[in-house]
């Protein structure tokens, strides 16, 4: 018997049953109360509100054996202008080889007219269209008519996929609250699933096994069928939190992976794949493995130039810098060479996959030990290593080795140097592709940190204005975002990093150097003036200037997400301040050392008056990049004390 013999003989189509759920209005019908509603009762202030969110999944005959069919229905109430974004509906799918299709799209908008009557406006078929994003992905767009604050939009569609092993994770939760969220699965018992569940709110479960009919070449055959329904109600939205990684990591969800097929005659087939099998399949992919085996055309000049480098690291740096300066990222993040490395090289533009596979090819040709590296960036979510699926990865980077060092590179990021692990994958797990030796590696380097140093010199004049200069040096992860901001918007750079956080401060001049020097910190020299706060004969100023730590981000009483800085951090503030004649320092903040109970955060402050000048030294170290949400109360309490110390005022008075 062939592996799928009995399946291709038996299973083709389940008898469809009613998908409208008891207590939920049918598509095209709406209660007037939902149109009159102005807020979500259990999640006040939401921009929009999912009234119905439902997925019904079942198997059907596909091109070879089967296909996976998902019927989706979504109904959304719009409360605010910001909620209008939820009426911009995009439905992505893989269009290559017709392995995924979107069918039966239906949509409408509901409103109340001036007399309070319900008006239903059906979306015209011309306002539902598909476009090809690249050689792999297509996307349907639904343009809803008559949408405004107070409207309800609704759409439904059927998604068919030849990838039968993985049912897409169903998210009961999203950025906006959901009143009714339901996942329903219908599958014959010959399919056995591995279930991956992340749920912490009440979940209604219904499961039943009964006889149903399947259509075969010999007619209808009765078979045992599993019906599984999972429902959540009144689910609050996931909100942005400071230093939060992907929201997807914290949304309540469920996933199913086809683990085994039981043919009913004592024979079973294990459908669970392994990471090595996944690598084998990707190696055959024309946009991944085949592209990795191609050479970059007309690249002899850079290869010959790299051969003259005295060290292997020098060779890596030269080729990396050449690629990131020559190539322009087109904004598409991908693990595939979407247009092919030869076409991308000629156009000098491509997806992140195109650019990084070009980098891989050139390094390999130059004799560097190099591997493709499949990653999931922070905004994509944490990899579940017990759930094998290439869909978990969203980009390919390049991993290179010398005798004593390793490098993780993304040449699509023009601002990141070759020897700094890109921030969006730092301290995450990634799959190093090396045939049968492929393995997960943790992308970490303890010496790669966020480093920020501020040297201040200020003089208070007789009118109470503190005038001075600051030299701010940003290194490691502190440098890259500032380089990007400076090169793309110099006025915005000045406002964001030097003006925005301080009332009445005036930045008179700013000079930036070392933008293009990867081995040096970004130096920012500014001249500033700051009128001091006054109360009677007293004046006040803070030592916490230009650090980026002016406002405590952890003030909420509760938190869902872990605190993910992504890196270790070091801050230093050096200062020297003098006063105009007739003024003296009256009350100085005390010298102290403050240490987190687990010793992961240490702050030290030392100051003294010498020859009439106040000399200050403040250091702050974060020795961990990550803190659990479970320990947030203790973390929040420490942060409150830390910021109170950082923002203590120096008091000045007249003699």
Strands, helices and their partners?
Elements: H1 5-10, H2 32-36, E1 48-61, E2 66-78, E3 88-94, E4 100-112, E5 118-122, E6 128-132, E7 137-143, E8 152-161, E9 166-171, E10 178-188, E11 191-198, E12 204-216, E13 219-235, E14 253-262, E15 268-270, H3 275-284, H4 289-292, H5 300-307, H6 312-326, E16 328-329, H7 341-347, E17 349-350, H8 352-365, E18 369-375, E19 395-401, E20 406-409, E21 429-432, E22 439-442, E23 449-460, E24 465-476, H9 480-488, H10 490-499, E25 506-513, E26 522-531, E27 533-535, E28 538-542, E29 563-564, E30 568-579, E31 583-587, E32 592-595, E33 601-610, E34 613-622, E35 626-627, H11 632-646, E36 649-654
Parallel strand pairs: 1-10, 16-17, 23-30
Antiparallel strand pairs: 1-2, 2-8, 3-7, 4-5, 4-8, 6-7, 9-14, 10-13, 11-14, 12-13, 14-15, 18-19, 18-21, 19-20, 21-22, 23-24, 24-26, 25-26, 27-28, 28-36, 29-35, 30-34, 31-36, 32-33, 33-34
Helix pairs in contact: 5-6, 6-8, 7-8, 9-10
Compact overview of the structure:
16% of the residues lie in helices and 42% in strands. By secondary structure, the protein is of the alpha+beta class. It has 3 domains: 35-270, Immunoglobulin-like (Sandwich), CATH 2.60.40; 276-442, C8orf32 fold (Roll), CATH 3.10.620; 449-654, Jelly Rolls (Sandwich).
Instruction: Identify the CATH architecture of the largest domain.
Output: Sandwich
Helix/strand/pairing class, anyone? alpha+beta
CATH class of the largest domain: Mainly Beta
Q: Summarize the biggest pleated sheet.
A: 8 strands, mixed
**Which band does the percent of strand residues land in?**
35-45%
Estimate percent helicity. Answer: 10-25%
What name does the CATH topology of the largest domain carry? Immunoglobulin-like
Our count of helices gives 11
- The radius of gyration is 30 Å
Report the span from N to C terminus: 100 Å
Task: Flag low-confidence runs.
Answer: 1-20, 215-219
Strand arrangement within the widest β-sheet reads: 5-4-8-2-1-10-13-12
> What would you call the shape?
globular
Mean pLDDT over the full residue set: 91
**Topology, number of strands:** 36
Whole-number count of domains: 3
């Amino acid at each position: 018997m062939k592996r799928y013999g009995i399946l291709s003989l038996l299973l083709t189509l389940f008898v469809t049953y009613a998908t409208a759920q008891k207590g939920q209005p049918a598509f095209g019908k709406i209660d007037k109360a939902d149109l009159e509603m102005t807020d979500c009762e259990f999640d006040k202030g939401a921009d929009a509100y999912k009234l119905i969110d439902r997925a019904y999944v079942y198997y059907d005959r596909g091109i070879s054996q089967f296909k996976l069919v998902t019927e989706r229905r979504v109904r959304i109430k719009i409360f605010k202008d910001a909620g209008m974004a939820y009426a911009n509906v995009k439905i992505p799918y893989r269009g290559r080889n017709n392995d995924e299709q979107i069918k039966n799209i239906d949509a409408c908008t509901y409103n109340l007219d001036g007399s309070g009557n319900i008006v239903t406006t059906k979306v015209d078929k011309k306002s539902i269209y598909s476009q090809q994003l690249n050689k792999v992905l297509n996307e349907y767009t639904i343009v809803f008519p008559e949408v405004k604050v107070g409207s309800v939009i609704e759409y439904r569609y059927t998604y068919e996929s030849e990838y039968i092993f993985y049912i897409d994770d169903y998210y009961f939760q999203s950025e906006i609250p959901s009143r009714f969220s339901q996942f329903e699965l219908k599958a014959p018992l010959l399919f056995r699933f591995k279930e991956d569940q992340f749920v912490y709110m009440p979940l209604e479960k219904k499961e039943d096994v009964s006889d149903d009919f399947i259509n075969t070449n010999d007619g209808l055959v009765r078979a045992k069928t599993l019906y599984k329904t999972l429902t959540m109600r009144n689910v609050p939205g996931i909100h942005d939190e400071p230093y939060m990684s992907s929201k997807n990591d914290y949304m309540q969800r469920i996933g199913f992976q086809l683990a085994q097929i039981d043919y009913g005659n004592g024979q079973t087939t294990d459908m669970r794949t392994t990471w090595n099998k996944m690598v084998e399949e990707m190696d055959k992919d024309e946009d991944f493995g085949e592209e990795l085996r191609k050479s970059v055309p007309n690249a002899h000049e850079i290869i010959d130039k790299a051969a003259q480098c005295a060290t292997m690291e020098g060779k890596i740096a030269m080729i990396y810098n050449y690629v990131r300066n020559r190539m322009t990222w087109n904004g598409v993040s991908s693990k595939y060479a979407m247009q092919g490395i030869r076409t991308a090289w000629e156009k000098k533009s491509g997806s992140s996959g195109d650019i990084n596979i070009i980098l891989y090819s050139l390094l390999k040709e130059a004799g560097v030990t190099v591997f493709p590296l499949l990653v999931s960036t922070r905004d994509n979510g944490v990899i579940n290593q017990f759930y094998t699926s290439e869909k978990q990865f969203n980009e390919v980077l390049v991993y290179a080795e010398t005798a004593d060092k390793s490098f993780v590179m993304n040449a699509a990021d023009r601002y990141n140097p070759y020897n700094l692990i890109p921030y969006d994958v730092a301290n995450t797990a990634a799959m190093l592709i090396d045939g049968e030796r492929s393995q997960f590696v943790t992308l970490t380097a303890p010496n790669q940190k966020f480093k920020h140093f501020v040297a201040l010199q200020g003089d208070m004049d007789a009118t109470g204005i503190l005038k001075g200069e600051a030299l701010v040096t940003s290194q490691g992860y502190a440098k890259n975002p500032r380089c990007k901001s400076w090169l793309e918007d110099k006025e915005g750079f000045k406002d964001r990093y030097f003006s925005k956080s301080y009332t009445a401060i005036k930045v008179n001049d700013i000079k930036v150097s070392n933008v293009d020097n990867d081995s040096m910190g970004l130096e920012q020299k500014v001249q500033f003036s700051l009128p001091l706060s006054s109360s009677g004969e007293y004046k006040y100023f803070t030592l916490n200037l230009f650090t980026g730590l002016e406002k405590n981000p952890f003030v909420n009483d509760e938190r869902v997400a872990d605190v993910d800085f992504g890196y270790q951090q070091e801050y230093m503030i050096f200062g020297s301040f003098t006063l105009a004649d007739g003024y003296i320092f009256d009350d100085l903040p005390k010298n102290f050392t403050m240490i987190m109970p687990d010793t992961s955060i240490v702050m030290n402050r030392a100051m003294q008056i010498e020859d009439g000048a106040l000399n200050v030294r403040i250091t702050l170290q974060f020795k961990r990049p990550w803190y659990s949400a479970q320990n947030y109360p203790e973390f929040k309490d420490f942060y409150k004390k830390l910021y109170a110390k950082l923002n203590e005022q120096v008091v000045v008075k007249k003699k």
